[in-house]
Sequence to fold (310 residues):
Amino acid sequence: MSKHGWAYLGGKQVPLKEANVGIMTHALHYGTAVFEGIRGNWNNDKGQMYVFRLKEHYERLLRGCNIMRINLPFSVDEYCKITLDLLLKNNFKEDVYIRPLAFKGAEMVANLKLHELSDEFALIILPFGSYIDNDRPIKCQTSSWRRPEDTIMPTGVKITGLYTTSILAKTEAVSAGYDEAILLNNDGTVSEGSGENLFIVNGETISTPCETDNCLLGITRDSIIQLAEAQLGLKVVQRRIHRSELYLADEIFLTGTAAHITSVGELDNRKISTGKLGQITGKLQDLYFSAVVGENEKFYDWCTPITPIN
Ligand SMILES: Cc1ncc(COP(=O)(O)O)c(C=O)c1O
Fold:
């Protein structure tokens, strides 16, 4: 990955190639960090970038920091401002991925007491196209790895250490020729994808696992629920979902900042319905893709526009 551009570390903007931490940094050894993934979507017709639901991402980051006893000096609004300033400094004219990271920056290895470790905040912004190819329905595998329960590790926020499970699951799925992994809970009910929330469609009803099913409360998930209800008049039910319901669904789709909204055409070598892009998934994709580039009037307040300097 190119190390071009500007980052934010130690309370100031620095060239990305100088934004480094030491080998003894606590977070590097124990996963004691909380992160966010935010997208800036480039609208070529308008010559503007739209940052999607910036405030909600920082609200979730600070919730994670609370759990991990990471004390950050600034408010949500101030982190939004730091992010917008860094976006202007980088002046990208393409889709970007914005990665804030709040971490135990103490160079202290043999210490497992969060309250004794000092905190750091870093921010990087990288050009970012598609994470998963959204042009075709993808093939998924039910993972042999289970989604950790919230009794084992907090699952509703993005703690870096939690992602070892997602990484094992994704690696297993891709190595076996699939595009993505779907993780079950320990009791065998459905949780989510390795980096996405999951929805099923049956007739006019959309269902998605609830918070107590150990899934991340995704910001894209929330956006899709609002779009489906407000603009398609569909009912979205948050409930426990059995594994076998997935094979029998009319449609399955995954949602996430990186993956956007991705249709699942096949799961464990079984076609989902016809295996083609479902009608409701397609309509939600259209609504979502126009919302993220500031073209859905009703949801314009989800977007923060940035005009690059020429
Ligand atoms: C495990 C996991 N689930 C779900 C999501 C989707 O969340 P969001 O829509 O907020 O990006 C993500 C991505 O952030 C994730 O990493």
User: Anything to note?
Assistant: The helical segments are 26-30, 54-68, 76-90, 163-175, 219-231, 243-248, 279-291. The mean pLDDT is 96. Residues 220 and 260 are 7 Å apart (CA to CA). The longest helix spans residues 54-68.
